[in-house]
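dumping these here so i dont lose them again. two proteins, back to back, each one seq then structure tokens. dont judge the mess
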Amino acid sequence: MNSKARKIKTGLFFGSFNPVHIGHLIVAGYMREFSDLDQVWFVISPHNPLKEKKTLLADHHRLMLVKTAIEDDPGFRACDIEFKMPQPSYTIDTLTYLSEKYPDRQFVLIAGTDVLPSFHKWKNYEVLLKDYQIYIYNRPGFNKGDYAHHPSIRYFDAPLMEISSSFIRQAIKARKDVQYMMPPKVWKYMREMHFYEKKGTGDGGRMTGKQQVTGFG
């Protein structure tokens, strides 16, 4: 491969996706279409055995939900790399590993402004800012702070929906119909598997202290 060939610019959208919903897809689609990204990868966060989450769906179920949601779009990809990495997983480690594994790609972190207040607490955040670009979508109630003009960070006004995975889980538990909050195939799969219908199934997210980059619960 020609070392000067243009790399495939790939956005990494981290989350527990418990479950994936329309809000996730809107942000991912906007970032792909209204930035210079070629693809967006949904990086599913693994279950942490040291921090029990009785209501977090098993890794393979959440992976299947994401695959089902994006199966007809070649610009999206489900990535389970963190399932195979040492726990706890940190964003900088995942970025480093993927950059070494896929030298033909330039990886970009996608995150919401809600990560900025605690960004200085991330593992090796200085390295992340030095070696990678970060595409930030604005979220109400959070400002840019010290990172307003950082050269490694770009800001986007992606359309947002006031919807969260936690709301969907609670609604299903209460026997509410939330089928229009996710792709039809995802809803069908969830209904067939009876996800989130019983108390104690379907809650959870990334570890406290880990990089929470989706902000969609």
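---- next one ----
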Amino acid sequence: MSTPSPVRLFCGAWRRNDDGYWIFQRKPSDLGYRVLIKPTETFEGLETIIRDRYNLKPETPLSLAYHPPEWMLEPEGTRTPPTTITKTSEVEAMMRLPFLVLRIIGS
């Protein structure tokens, strides 16, 4: 039995500043959502959860990315590009991380 884990969702855009650091700029109107995701969730299932939560139509472009906790990004820190999720194996890898915040790029 796999216990779902809480994941925070935020909508916005990743930006790389002049010093090479990646920063997520959340949409000011988005307060985020807390969802429960199974460790065995498929990419398609995760996409459905996000589209339902944000009321996004199937034709709306959607990109999913995250940064692991900073202590896991050594030695580059937040100069490490965000990790984009495009398939189920990447969802499973993401779900093994502690303190997960998933950033969404969509309309």
